[in-house]
Amino acid sequence: MSITILDTCSAMRRILLAPVADRVDLLRSMLEANRGMYRYQPGEVDLVAVHRETSGFPVDRDEERCLDALETLAAAGAWERMQRALDHALAVLLEATPGLRVPDITVLLVLGDPGDEHFMGPCLGVTGFGGISGHIAITVWPFPENVERLEATAVHELHHNLRFGPGGVVWDPMTVTVGEHVVSEGLADAFARQLYGDELGPTRIGVPHLHDDEVFGKVLTGLDVTDMRNLTAWVHGDPSAERYGLTPVGLPMGAGYAAGNRLVDTYLAATGQTAAQALHAGSSEIIAATLRRG
């Protein structure tokens, strides 16, 4: 049982300094360690294509800009800080959840694409994915706010990884609901807040709407919507839905994160639990705590 943050700092520096013709192969080699993240996708996954589609740093432009950004992350001790944060967070979760089954986890931290307007704009320069047991991927541009929140970002994804890990909540892409996704984001944010406070803990895209009753009410109307393809608009908001050619539903960026925080906070207040203790709490139970309040 271990958490390993890969030395992508050295790998990215090598890629960005290599001749352009060599960079794709070097990038593919760096990404190979996280291939298991895509084990449920049919057919052979092109890791470089996924990297590009998910706002990973470019290999054919902006070299100096990316190298400068890489040095900013290195100078901030990003990899070391995230390793310490994840080790501490794991200890907290193990203490709160006796018998928790923890796989070996590989963490891939990569620079984002400074030329990607959606990533640098609506996404605020940071995305993460920790929903597949044993693998975490975080894509970041070192805006000061993101560098300050590196630990919170990492432990948010760890909470996902263990919530949906062995013996935890089952995530079926065809039957999963907006409610399940929203609750998982709220729990992960609550865990980051538990460890790093209300200033650094919440995912940035959700913060503007934390107290917006209209947004909250709108998300509640979609909690029973199923199928992962329909979740993006409800959880991340219309800007992300439009980016990926999906149907918008009239919600701002990060709406589902804001709603998830409110749902989870109501549940935690009602039960007296911490987010760590609620790691495997059922989404229907968490949602019901809010609905009971009317």
From TrEMBL:
Any one Pfam family match given in the protein's UniProt record, by short name: DUF2268
Organism: Microbispora rosea
Span of domain DUF2268: 102-287
Classification via InterPro entries: DUF2268
Name of the molecule in the record: Uncharacterized protein YjaZ
Domain of life: Bacteria
